[in-house]
Amino acid sequence: MSRFFSKKYEALTPYTPGEQPGGRAFVKLNTNESPFPPSKKAMEEAAKASERLQLYPDPTCKRLTEKMAEVLGVTPDKVLMTNGSDEILNFAFMAFCDKEHPAAFADITYGFYQVFAELNGVPYEQIPLNGDFTLPIEKFLRLPHTLFIANPNAPTGLAISLSDIERLLQSNPDRVVVIDEAYVDFGGQSAVGLTEKYDNLLVTGTFSKSRSMAGARLGYGVACPALINDLNTIKYSTNPYNVNAMTAAAGYGMLLDEEYTRANCKRIIATRARVKEALEGLGFVVIPSLTNFLFAKREGLSGMDYYLKLKEKGVLVRHFETERLKDFNRITIGSEGEMDVFLKATEEILKESEGVLL
Protein backbone atom coordinates (compact mmCIF):
# COMPACT_ATOMS: atom_id res chain seq x y z
CA MET A 1 0.00 0.00 0.00
CA SER A 2 1.09 3.58 -0.52
CA ARG A 3 2.12 5.98 2.23
CA PHE A 4 -1.12 7.88 1.56
CA PHE A 5 -3.47 4.99 2.38
CA SER A 6 -5.68 5.81 5.37
CA LYS A 7 -4.60 4.10 8.58
CA LYS A 8 -8.22 3.25 9.33
CA TYR A 9 -8.05 0.67 6.54
CA GLU A 10 -4.57 -0.71 7.19
CA ALA A 11 -5.87 -3.90 8.80
CA LEU A 12 -8.66 -4.45 6.25
CA THR A 13 -8.61 -7.84 4.55
CA PRO A 14 -10.56 -7.51 1.29
CA TYR A 15 -12.96 -10.12 -0.02
CA THR A 16 -11.35 -12.66 -2.35
CA PRO A 17 -13.50 -13.32 -5.44
CA GLY A 18 -13.44 -16.66 -7.21
CA GLU A 19 -10.94 -17.10 -10.01
CA GLN A 20 -11.87 -15.51 -13.34
CA PRO A 21 -9.35 -17.25 -15.61
CA GLY A 22 -8.10 -15.94 -18.90
CA GLY A 23 -6.42 -17.86 -21.68
CA ARG A 24 -7.18 -21.52 -21.19
CA ALA A 25 -10.80 -22.58 -21.46
CA PHE A 26 -12.05 -24.05 -18.17
CA VAL A 27 -15.26 -25.70 -17.10
CA LYS A 28 -16.00 -22.96 -14.61
CA LEU A 29 -17.73 -24.29 -11.50
CA ASN A 30 -16.22 -21.94 -8.93
CA THR A 31 -18.36 -18.80 -8.67
CA ASN A 32 -21.97 -20.06 -8.65
CA GLU A 33 -22.90 -18.42 -11.94
CA SER A 34 -25.80 -19.73 -13.98
CA PRO A 35 -24.91 -22.02 -16.90
CA PHE A 36 -27.77 -20.44 -18.87
CA PRO A 37 -27.76 -17.08 -20.67
CA PRO A 38 -30.24 -14.36 -19.71
CA SER A 39 -33.70 -14.43 -21.23
CA LYS A 40 -33.96 -13.02 -24.76
CA LYS A 41 -36.37 -10.47 -23.30
CA ALA A 42 -33.58 -9.23 -21.01
CA MET A 43 -31.19 -8.86 -23.93
CA GLU A 44 -33.80 -7.05 -26.03
CA GLU A 45 -34.55 -4.57 -23.24
CA ALA A 46 -30.84 -3.95 -22.63
CA ALA A 47 -30.30 -3.32 -26.33
CA LYS A 48 -33.07 -0.71 -26.34
CA ALA A 49 -31.51 1.00 -23.31
CA SER A 50 -28.10 1.10 -25.02
CA GLU A 51 -29.52 3.66 -27.46
CA ARG A 52 -29.96 6.18 -24.63
CA LEU A 53 -26.67 5.88 -22.78
CA GLN A 54 -25.98 9.61 -23.18
CA LEU A 55 -28.60 10.13 -20.46
CA TYR A 56 -28.40 9.35 -16.75
CA PRO A 57 -30.48 6.36 -15.65
CA ASP A 58 -33.62 6.82 -13.57
CA PRO A 59 -32.27 6.99 -9.99
CA THR A 60 -35.51 5.51 -8.65
CA CYS A 61 -35.50 2.57 -11.11
CA LYS A 62 -39.27 3.13 -11.18
CA ARG A 63 -40.21 0.67 -13.93
CA LEU A 64 -37.90 -2.05 -12.60
CA THR A 65 -38.91 -1.47 -8.97
CA GLU A 66 -42.61 -1.73 -9.79
CA LYS A 67 -42.08 -4.96 -11.73
CA MET A 68 -39.89 -6.42 -8.97
CA ALA A 69 -42.58 -5.58 -6.41
CA GLU A 70 -45.22 -7.24 -8.58
CA VAL A 71 -43.17 -10.43 -8.92
CA LEU A 72 -42.47 -10.53 -5.17
CA GLY A 73 -46.05 -9.72 -4.19
CA VAL A 74 -45.29 -6.53 -2.27
CA THR A 75 -45.81 -2.81 -2.82
CA PRO A 76 -43.10 -0.78 -4.61
CA ASP A 77 -42.33 1.28 -1.49
CA LYS A 78 -40.96 -1.91 0.07
CA VAL A 79 -38.36 -2.52 -2.65
CA LEU A 80 -34.94 -1.00 -3.33
CA MET A 81 -32.89 -2.00 -6.40
CA THR A 82 -29.12 -1.90 -6.06
CA ASN A 83 -25.83 -2.54 -7.84
CA GLY A 84 -25.70 -6.22 -6.92
CA SER A 85 -26.83 -7.53 -3.55
CA ASP A 86 -23.39 -6.66 -2.19
CA GLU A 87 -24.35 -3.01 -2.36
CA ILE A 88 -27.52 -3.37 -0.33
CA LEU A 89 -25.66 -5.50 2.22
CA ASN A 90 -23.11 -2.72 2.57
CA PHE A 91 -25.94 -0.19 2.86
CA ALA A 92 -27.36 -2.29 5.70
CA PHE A 93 -24.06 -2.27 7.58
CA MET A 94 -23.92 1.51 7.14
CA ALA A 95 -27.54 2.15 8.10
CA PHE A 96 -28.17 -0.33 10.90
CA CYS A 97 -24.79 -0.98 12.54
CA ASP A 98 -22.44 1.10 14.66
CA LYS A 99 -20.61 0.87 17.97
CA GLU A 100 -23.93 0.74 19.83
CA HIS A 101 -25.39 -1.75 17.34
CA PRO A 102 -22.71 -4.33 16.50
CA ALA A 103 -23.20 -6.97 13.83
CA ALA A 104 -23.36 -10.75 14.20
CA PHE A 105 -23.08 -13.49 11.62
CA ALA A 106 -21.88 -17.07 11.37
CA ASP A 107 -18.19 -17.91 11.29
CA ILE A 108 -18.74 -19.87 8.08
CA THR A 109 -20.86 -17.80 5.70
CA TYR A 110 -20.57 -15.22 2.96
CA GLY A 111 -17.15 -13.62 3.36
CA PHE A 112 -18.28 -10.09 2.60
CA TYR A 113 -20.09 -9.72 5.95
CA GLN A 114 -16.79 -9.53 7.79
CA VAL A 115 -15.33 -7.22 5.15
CA PHE A 116 -18.26 -4.81 5.33
CA ALA A 117 -18.12 -4.77 9.12
CA GLU A 118 -14.43 -3.93 9.10
CA LEU A 119 -14.75 -1.44 6.25
CA ASN A 120 -17.43 0.47 8.16
CA GLY A 121 -15.73 0.23 11.55
CA VAL A 122 -18.55 -1.91 12.95
CA PRO A 123 -17.82 -4.23 15.89
CA TYR A 124 -18.94 -7.76 15.09
CA GLU A 125 -19.27 -11.22 16.55
CA GLN A 126 -18.88 -14.42 14.57
CA ILE A 127 -20.98 -17.30 15.87
CA PRO A 128 -19.53 -20.77 15.14
CA LEU A 129 -21.75 -23.08 13.16
CA ASN A 130 -22.59 -26.43 14.72
CA GLY A 131 -20.41 -29.43 13.90
CA ASP A 132 -22.79 -30.40 11.08
CA PHE A 133 -22.65 -26.82 9.69
CA THR A 134 -26.19 -25.99 10.82
CA LEU A 135 -26.90 -22.58 12.30
CA PRO A 136 -27.08 -22.44 16.13
CA ILE A 137 -30.33 -20.50 16.29
CA GLU A 138 -30.40 -20.36 20.10
CA LYS A 139 -27.12 -18.44 20.21
CA PHE A 140 -28.43 -15.83 17.77
CA LEU A 141 -31.65 -15.43 19.72
CA ARG A 142 -29.79 -14.07 22.72
CA LEU A 143 -27.79 -11.44 20.85
CA PRO A 144 -28.77 -7.75 20.74
CA HIS A 145 -26.76 -7.36 17.51
CA THR A 146 -27.91 -6.61 13.97
CA LEU A 147 -28.01 -10.09 12.43
CA PHE A 148 -26.80 -11.07 8.95
CA ILE A 149 -27.87 -14.56 7.89
CA ALA A 150 -27.40 -16.09 4.45
CA ASN A 151 -30.35 -18.39 3.85
CA PRO A 152 -29.51 -20.79 2.30
CA ASN A 153 -25.99 -20.39 3.60
CA ALA A 154 -22.81 -20.30 1.55
CA PRO A 155 -20.64 -22.25 1.15
CA THR A 156 -22.55 -25.03 2.94
CA GLY A 157 -25.88 -24.89 1.06
CA LEU A 158 -27.94 -25.42 4.22
CA ALA A 159 -31.01 -23.36 5.13
CA ILE A 160 -33.04 -22.44 8.19
CA SER A 161 -36.84 -22.49 8.30
CA LEU A 162 -39.21 -19.54 8.19
CA SER A 163 -40.28 -20.43 11.72
CA ASP A 164 -36.68 -20.00 12.90
CA ILE A 165 -36.49 -16.64 11.13
CA GLU A 166 -39.67 -15.60 12.93
CA ARG A 167 -38.13 -16.64 16.24
CA LEU A 168 -35.16 -14.39 15.50
CA LEU A 169 -37.44 -11.48 14.61
CA GLN A 170 -39.68 -11.92 17.65
CA SER A 171 -36.89 -12.47 20.17
CA ASN A 172 -35.74 -8.86 19.86
CA PRO A 173 -37.97 -6.46 17.87
CA ASP A 174 -35.43 -3.66 18.48
CA ARG A 175 -32.74 -5.12 16.23
CA VAL A 176 -32.69 -5.53 12.45
CA VAL A 177 -32.42 -9.03 10.99
CA VAL A 178 -30.97 -9.21 7.48
CA ILE A 179 -31.77 -12.39 5.55
CA ASP A 180 -29.56 -12.76 2.48
CA GLU A 181 -31.49 -14.85 -0.07
CA ALA A 182 -28.96 -15.03 -2.91
CA TYR A 183 -29.73 -18.74 -3.43
CA VAL A 184 -33.36 -19.00 -2.33
CA ASP A 185 -34.73 -19.88 -5.78
CA PHE A 186 -33.04 -23.29 -5.77
CA GLY A 187 -35.26 -24.86 -3.12
CA GLY A 188 -35.28 -22.49 -0.15
CA GLN A 189 -38.21 -20.65 1.44
CA SER A 190 -38.26 -16.90 0.96
CA ALA A 191 -38.87 -14.64 3.96
CA VAL A 192 -40.18 -11.80 1.80
CA GLY A 193 -43.74 -12.46 3.00
CA LEU A 194 -42.64 -11.85 6.58
CA THR A 195 -41.85 -8.21 5.76
CA GLU A 196 -45.62 -7.63 5.90
CA LYS A 197 -45.56 -8.66 9.55
CA TYR A 198 -42.20 -7.50 10.92
CA ASP A 199 -40.69 -4.02 10.65
CA ASN A 200 -37.23 -5.23 11.70
CA LEU A 201 -36.68 -7.55 8.72
CA LEU A 202 -34.63 -6.81 5.59
CA VAL A 203 -34.54 -9.49 2.88
CA THR A 204 -31.88 -9.15 0.18
CA GLY A 205 -31.64 -10.88 -3.17
CA THR A 206 -29.67 -10.94 -6.40
CA PHE A 207 -30.12 -11.45 -10.13
CA SER A 208 -26.67 -13.10 -10.31
CA LYS A 209 -27.73 -16.69 -9.64
CA SER A 210 -31.19 -17.83 -10.73
CA ARG A 211 -31.71 -14.90 -13.13
CA SER A 212 -28.45 -15.35 -15.07
CA MET A 213 -27.23 -11.75 -14.67
CA ALA A 214 -23.99 -12.03 -12.67
CA GLY A 215 -22.21 -9.85 -15.22
CA ALA A 216 -24.82 -7.09 -15.04
CA ARG A 217 -24.68 -6.53 -11.24
CA LEU A 218 -28.25 -6.20 -9.99
CA GLY A 219 -29.62 -6.82 -6.52
CA TYR A 220 -32.52 -5.75 -4.36
CA GLY A 221 -33.81 -5.41 -0.84
CA VAL A 222 -37.31 -5.87 0.56
CA ALA A 223 -38.41 -4.39 3.89
CA CYS A 224 -41.01 -2.15 5.45
CA PRO A 225 -41.08 1.36 3.90
CA ALA A 226 -39.28 2.91 6.88
CA LEU A 227 -36.25 0.61 6.49
CA ILE A 228 -36.24 1.20 2.73
CA ASN A 229 -36.23 4.95 3.40
CA ASP A 230 -33.20 4.49 5.67
CA LEU A 231 -31.39 2.57 2.93
CA ASN A 232 -32.33 5.20 0.35
CA THR A 233 -30.74 7.84 2.58
CA ILE A 234 -27.49 5.90 2.31
CA LYS A 235 -27.93 5.35 -1.43
CA TYR A 236 -28.59 9.02 -2.21
CA SER A 237 -25.63 10.00 -0.04
CA THR A 238 -23.22 7.76 -1.96
CA ASN A 239 -24.38 6.98 -5.51
CA PRO A 240 -27.91 7.98 -6.55
CA TYR A 241 -27.42 6.49 -10.03
CA ASN A 242 -26.34 3.16 -8.61
CA VAL A 243 -28.06 0.92 -11.20
CA ASN A 244 -27.01 1.68 -14.77
CA ALA A 245 -29.61 1.96 -17.52
CA MET A 246 -28.72 -1.25 -19.37
CA THR A 247 -28.70 -3.32 -16.18
CA ALA A 248 -32.06 -1.90 -15.08
CA ALA A 249 -33.53 -2.65 -18.50
CA ALA A 250 -32.10 -6.18 -18.58
CA GLY A 251 -33.48 -6.80 -15.09
CA TYR A 252 -36.91 -5.64 -16.22
CA GLY A 253 -36.71 -7.99 -19.19
CA MET A 254 -35.77 -10.91 -16.94
CA LEU A 255 -38.79 -10.23 -14.77
CA LEU A 256 -40.99 -10.36 -17.87
CA ASP A 257 -39.86 -13.96 -18.32
CA GLU A 258 -40.25 -15.58 -14.91
CA GLU A 259 -41.23 -18.84 -16.62
CA TYR A 260 -37.72 -18.99 -18.13
CA THR A 261 -36.14 -18.42 -14.70
CA ARG A 262 -38.27 -21.09 -13.03
CA ALA A 263 -37.48 -23.61 -15.78
CA ASN A 264 -33.74 -22.99 -15.40
CA CYS A 265 -33.98 -23.43 -11.63
CA LYS A 266 -35.75 -26.77 -12.09
CA ARG A 267 -33.00 -27.92 -14.45
CA ILE A 268 -30.29 -26.93 -11.97
CA ILE A 269 -32.10 -28.65 -9.10
CA ALA A 270 -32.39 -31.86 -11.14
CA THR A 271 -28.72 -31.74 -12.14
CA ARG A 272 -27.75 -31.04 -8.53
CA ALA A 273 -29.54 -34.20 -7.40
CA ARG A 274 -27.85 -36.27 -10.12
CA VAL A 275 -24.37 -34.99 -9.32
CA LYS A 276 -24.88 -35.40 -5.57
CA GLU A 277 -25.86 -39.04 -6.08
CA ALA A 278 -22.89 -39.62 -8.37
CA LEU A 279 -20.43 -38.08 -5.92
CA GLU A 280 -21.82 -40.10 -3.04
CA GLY A 281 -21.41 -43.19 -5.19
CA LEU A 282 -17.74 -42.26 -5.51
CA GLY A 283 -17.34 -42.08 -1.73
CA PHE A 284 -17.83 -38.36 -1.18
CA VAL A 285 -19.68 -36.81 1.74
CA VAL A 286 -22.00 -34.19 0.22
CA ILE A 287 -23.82 -31.67 2.40
CA PRO A 288 -27.56 -31.47 1.50
CA SER A 289 -27.94 -28.33 -0.61
CA LEU A 290 -30.75 -25.90 -1.42
CA THR A 291 -28.50 -23.81 -3.66
CA ASN A 292 -26.94 -24.02 -7.11
CA PHE A 293 -23.80 -25.65 -5.69
CA LEU A 294 -22.67 -28.65 -3.69
CA PHE A 295 -20.23 -28.74 -0.79
CA ALA A 296 -18.33 -32.02 -0.74
CA LYS A 297 -15.32 -33.87 0.61
CA ARG A 298 -13.87 -37.39 0.40
CA GLU A 299 -12.02 -39.23 3.14
CA GLY A 300 -8.36 -39.62 2.22
CA LEU A 301 -8.48 -37.00 -0.53
CA SER A 302 -7.06 -33.61 0.39
CA GLY A 303 -9.43 -30.82 -0.49
CA MET A 304 -6.57 -28.75 -1.88
CA ASP A 305 -5.16 -31.66 -3.89
CA TYR A 306 -8.58 -32.39 -5.37
CA TYR A 307 -9.02 -28.73 -6.31
CA LEU A 308 -5.58 -28.56 -7.94
CA LYS A 309 -6.01 -31.84 -9.83
CA LEU A 310 -9.38 -30.73 -11.15
CA LYS A 311 -7.78 -27.49 -12.27
CA GLU A 312 -5.08 -29.45 -14.11
CA LYS A 313 -7.88 -31.25 -15.95
CA GLY A 314 -9.57 -27.99 -16.90
CA VAL A 315 -12.25 -27.84 -14.19
CA LEU A 316 -12.40 -24.98 -11.67
CA VAL A 317 -14.13 -25.38 -8.30
CA ARG A 318 -13.84 -23.24 -5.15
CA HIS A 319 -11.52 -24.27 -2.33
CA PHE A 320 -11.40 -22.63 1.10
CA GLU A 321 -8.27 -22.86 3.21
CA THR A 322 -9.73 -22.31 6.68
CA GLU A 323 -9.33 -25.19 9.13
CA ARG A 324 -12.96 -26.35 9.20
CA LEU A 325 -13.37 -26.12 5.42
CA LYS A 326 -10.04 -27.26 4.03
CA ASP A 327 -11.22 -30.81 3.28
CA PHE A 328 -14.21 -29.51 1.27
CA ASN A 329 -14.70 -27.97 -2.13
CA ARG A 330 -17.68 -25.98 -3.36
CA ILE A 331 -18.89 -27.12 -6.76
CA THR A 332 -21.23 -24.94 -8.81
CA ILE A 333 -23.94 -26.80 -10.70
CA GLY A 334 -23.30 -26.10 -14.37
CA SER A 335 -24.92 -27.54 -17.47
CA GLU A 336 -25.43 -31.29 -17.85
CA GLY A 337 -22.41 -31.43 -20.14
CA GLU A 338 -20.21 -29.45 -17.76
CA MET A 339 -21.12 -31.72 -14.87
CA ASP A 340 -20.34 -34.79 -16.97
CA VAL A 341 -16.86 -33.35 -17.57
CA PHE A 342 -16.51 -32.68 -13.84
CA LEU A 343 -17.57 -36.22 -12.86
CA LYS A 344 -15.29 -37.81 -15.45
CA ALA A 345 -12.36 -35.74 -14.15
CA THR A 346 -13.22 -36.76 -10.59
CA GLU A 347 -13.24 -40.45 -11.51
CA GLU A 348 -9.86 -40.07 -13.18
CA ILE A 349 -8.42 -38.33 -10.11
CA LEU A 350 -9.63 -41.12 -7.84
CA LYS A 351 -8.08 -43.76 -10.09
CA GLU A 352 -4.80 -41.88 -10.24
CA SER A 353 -4.77 -41.18 -6.50
CA GLU A 354 -5.91 -44.51 -5.15
CA GLY A 355 -5.79 -47.05 -7.95
CA VAL A 356 -9.49 -47.62 -7.39
CA LEU A 357 -11.33 -49.28 -10.28
CA LEU A 358 -14.56 -47.35 -10.56
Euclidean distance between termini CA atoms: 51 Å
As a whole number of angstroms, the C-alpha radius of gyration is 21 Å
Q: Which regions are unreliable across 5 or more consecutive residues at pLDDT < 50?
A: none
Q: Please state the second-level CATH architecture of the largest domain.
A: 3-Layer(aba) Sandwich
What percent strand?
A: 5-15%
Strand order of the largest sheet: 2-8-7-6-5-3-4
Helix content: 25-40%
CATH class of the largest domain: Alpha Beta
Tally of extended strands? 13
Question: Which structural class matches the secondary elements?
Answer: alpha/beta
Listing every helix as H and every strand as E from the N terminus to the C terminus, the arrangement reads EHHEHEHEHEHEEEHHHEEHEEEH
- Number of separate domains: 2
- What gross morphology would you assign? globular
User: Looking at CATH, which topology of the largest domain would you report?
Assistant: Aspartate Aminotransferase, domain 2
- The CATH superfamily of the largest domain is known as Type I PLP-dependent aspartate aminotransferase-like (Major domain)
Which short descriptors sum up this protein?
Aspartate Aminotransferase, domain 1; alpha/beta; Aspartate Aminotransferase, domain 2; 7-stranded mixed sheet; 2 domains; 38% helix; single chain; 358 residues; 11 helices; 4-stranded antiparallel sheet
